[in-house]
Every structure is written in structure tokens, then in C-alpha cells.
Structure prediction request, 398 residues.
Amino acid sequence: MFEQVKAIPGDALLALMVAFKNDPNPNKIDLGVGVYKDDTGNTPILKVVKQAESYLLAHELSKGYIGATGSPELAPLLQKLMLGENHPLIGSGRIATAQTPGGTGALRVAGDLINAVKPEAKIWVSDPTWSNHFHVFAGSGVEVRTYPYYDAQRNALAIDQMLACITQMTAGDVILLHASCHNPTGIDPSFSQWQQISKAVAERGVVPLIDCAYQGFGEGLEEDVQGLRLLVEQCPEALITTSCSKNFGLYNERVGALSVITETSEANQKTMSQVANCIRANYSNPPAHGAAIVCTILSDNTLRQQWEAELAEMRDRIRLMRTTLVKHLKEINCSRDFSFIAEQKGMFSYSGLSKEEVLFLREQHGIYAVDTGRINVAGINANNIERLGFAINQAIQL
Ligand code: PMP
Prediction:
């Protein structure tokens, strides 16, 4: 069976991680992999997570299966986090949330659900988007198309082209929108642009699939879901995929969720039976521990406040690195204007650096960014920021 198997090229980002690991340069800088790092270059476990885990260790009574749709406690907690405490959808029967293994698991179940209930629907993703969106939806057997998103000339959102594309989509197609901290560009719509987008999506009868992987990493817990809330208000149906990997630092615990919003509660019950069926065929039921951590934190006032403070610390550090890098590049009279980096949101930034410039950084300075010019701003710290500025300034003079 396996003797004739052809190897397929590995993921470019994973290859970059391996190259970084094998680089003997003591001053190497990792701006590739998409995890948060603190000022010492570590991906920390939040203190509040440790506290919740000690509580769970003492109180957990069973390791029994938790059912296909996971923790029933997690569903209302995540709904309130995303939609707001007293949102009319909560408890209306029109929204249901299934816990999944990470945001990726949620996206896969969403893809499988679409394929099960409307196989002719296409999923439209932004150009560019997180590359795994293509793999995941291909795995579900759903056709993927792209809509314009990034205007390379202005380092800004290509809003006019995006809106024009939405008006051409087939009603009943699905449009994937990043709730905040767009991966890979770092460019989010402004509030007025979200108003235009949600109006266009609702008018066209396209179903929004909102990928909420970075709530709290951009501007704040509330600010980062303003587009999501507009979409849910204006569209009768929506899908939301949530990841708790970044904002709780629970990358390897695989905590996420798929929320399904339908026009009626009857449709919701039927649709959730399809969701449960997709889950059973995939992994039967999700892991319990990470979701229990999130529930413990979100359902306790003290722990929740502590979590919000630690989340703000991560967010503020990323923002500080953005502004400090821009300031430093100005101070050393860099001839290219990088001020847009300070305007972008979340961990990622389309830096505008060309592939040649990225390769120069890697080969000459041991600085690892993705070939597209995407950098993980969380990889910058007080120790390496001047070296990075110096190297960027050299790279652009090629
Ligand atoms: N969506 C986007 C836009 C992401 O960037 C990521 C993580 N890189 C995910 C979803 C998936 O996150 P998770 O690790 O929870 O599967």
C-alpha cells in the first residue's frame, strides 16, 4: 500500500520553524510561528490558567466522555463573551454552540456541515487568508473561492473591491470573515467598513462564517467583536467558529467552538443534529480539559477579571512592539514608511517586505519571517527590536 506513495510538500510555516530551530545563530529572531511570546521570547501559561487547573485537579470527578457537542457549560459562556451578556439571541433557541477541538476543529465541522446541508454552496475567503482555511474546507469537499481584501499599494483594506465581489456572490453561499486581527495581514475593517460589509452580506443573502480566533488580541474584548455583532444582527443565519488558543494561551489543549445561528429554533434543532453527526464521524467527541479551564475562568468573577488583565497585558505588549518598531525605524531614518504597522491589529502584520527582502533577513541576520512578508509582531521584544530595525533598514536597500 505504501511503497508507491508520493510525498507531498510540507507546510511552509512548519519548514520555517524547523529552519529556525536548526539555525546556530545565537541572535536569531523568530517572527514566523503564530503563537504569542512574552518579552523574554516564551509562550507562557497564563497564571489564571494555572489557578483554574489547580481547582480542576482538586474537584474533577470523572474522565467520562462529554458527548459530541461537548461541555454544555461552555456554550452560554462563549455566546455571552462574543455577543454580549444580554444579547436577545441567547436563550432564544436560535443559537446553539458545539465545543470543538480548537478553532480548526470548528472550521472543519462548519465545512462538513455546509457540505452535508448545502453541498453546492461555495465558501468565499479573503485574499489572502490563513492558509489552512483552504486545506480544511478542501477536506470537507466544499468549493473555496476568494474575495479581494488586501490593497498592497496602500497597505489597507480593498473595501470597494471587496464590496463589489460580495454583490456578485450567489445567495446562499458562505463568506468567511475574520472577526478581528486578520491573519495574515493585521488589517481589520473599521466600524463604518463593517457596517458596509454587513449590509452587503445581508442584502445579498450570503451566510457569514465568522472566524473568531483572536478576541481580545486587537483592541479589546468588546471592540474585537463589533463586526461580528453587526453581522449577527443583520443576517438571519450565521456560523461562528471560536478559538480559545490565543486569548487563553491554550494552544495545545484544543479548545474551540462552532456556533450555529438559524432563523427559527426548529431549524436550529435540526441543524445541530447534523452538526452532531459531522462530529461523530470526525472525532466522536472533543477533549474535556481545556474547555473545563475556560469554563472555570469565565464563570468566576475573580478569575475572569484576572484573565482580562492578563489578556490586556498580551495585547498591550503587542501594540507597544508595533509602535516601538515604527518609531525606531523613523529614528534610524529608514527610507520606507512603515507607519501602517502601528495601525494593524493583533499578532500579525503584512510588513510589505518582498520575498527577496525576507530571504535577506533570514540569510544575513537569522530573522525568520514568512515569504509573503508576514511577521508575528509578538516575536519582537526589547532585546531584539533594534537589531530587527537595523536589518530591515539594510534589507530595503537591496
Ligand atoms: N483561524 C485563524 C484565522 C487562525 O489564525 C487560527 C490559528 N492560527 C485558527 C483559526 C485556528 O486556531 P486553533 O489553534 O484554535 O485551531
User: Anything to note?
Assistant: The mean pLDDT is 96. Residues 34, 102-104, 130, 178, 183, 211, 213, 243, 245, 256 surround 4'-deoxy-4'-aminopyridoxal-5'-phosphate (CB under 6 Å). The first helix runs from residue 12 to 22.
